[in-house]
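The instructor's notes for this session suggest beginning with a concrete chain rather than abstract definitions. Hand out the sequence below and ask the class to guess, before any prediction is shown, which regions might be ordered.
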Amino acid sequence: MSAQRAYLVPLVAMLWTQVAGSAAIAAVPVVAPELAAELGVDASLVGVYTGVWFAAATVLSLASGGLIARLGAVRTNQLAVAGSGLGLLLALVPTVGFTALAALVAGAAYGPNTPSGSQVLATAVPARRRGLAFSVKQSGAALGAMLAGLALPVAVTFGGWRAALVATAAFCVLAALMVEPVRRRLDPRERLAGGGAAPSPLESMRVVMRDPGLRRITIGGVALMVAHGSYQSFTVAYLVEAVGRDLAVAGGLFAALQAGAAVSRVLLGWLADRIGGARGVLSTVAAVAVVAGVLTARFDASWSTGALGLVCVLAGIGSSGWYGVFLAEVARLGLRTGTGQATGGVLFFAYAALVSGPLLVSAVVAAAGRYEPAFLLLAAMSAVACAAFARIRPSRPEL
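After discussion, reveal the predicted structure:
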């Protein structure tokens, strides 16, 4: 492979671990109706599970800079994906306490996943290719959730929800092992070049707070992360409980949402590289999320499966299509302080939104007794993101 294409190997490796880590996030939300029935709780409480997951990830994302400096970015990424899968096994004990513990352990392990992957790509990918490369890598998040939406209902049918969680854990460990050749090639070189003392977790927050560009993009990311996390958490439960679809159909519609996210992330990354800036792309995607939220709130049993699928694709584009372009812009803004550290700081605030968003939606559903007001709330948050992204300063394309 030519030197100009050498970045494709680490890109594929980080895409692969992103797919596995995202499947781990989606596993419990996808099997939530079956798991909740055994626990004797309402499936809408999956928002609490997702909140606990990302609360733990929020804290550990701040430690990403130190872990990367000590272990190397690829090793940190391996530990994150394997740990997030193995943590799911705690949920095999069918109690609310062990399910919460699974979210805590798996979420904590997942925390350094995205910062470490961003560090690998920032080191390996030429600047002019980063928008597309980051978007391809982050399409793995949607692909992993799509895989979970398609495969786990089948696993539930043949082996029950426990078999689905065990299969997800095995997939995550396998993904971590398969990128070992990339670790042997990249990590020693990165640690040699990096040197110095490992940054403190609090310094990652200070980096974001001190930098105007990082502050602006973080505000938009936080607002849209509320919608992203809530669609990931509630789509299947909403379609089963409120719209009257069975688990297999709901899983397929969830997969359609993820397909929209995966394809749009790649196309939007390519577009951002072509136009040399992220502002217009991010603002437009947030506007799509506003429309999707309003339409999703109108779902009922009279909607055809095809119409539901089209709106789910739109929701996937709006709530998730922005993330690769967003991370590439964060990487650009954070080059002076270290991409892993800047990304960890931004994701501290973004993951906090993933914690509060599903918890807020759970509270709205409980108070209203229905899901529609919650999805209108997601549309409003997407409008906030649209306004915030519009204020990002245009960036000059790098060579």
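Then share the key points. The domain at 3-191+199-389 is CATH 1.20.1250.20 (Growth Hormone; Chain: A;). The mean pLDDT is 84.
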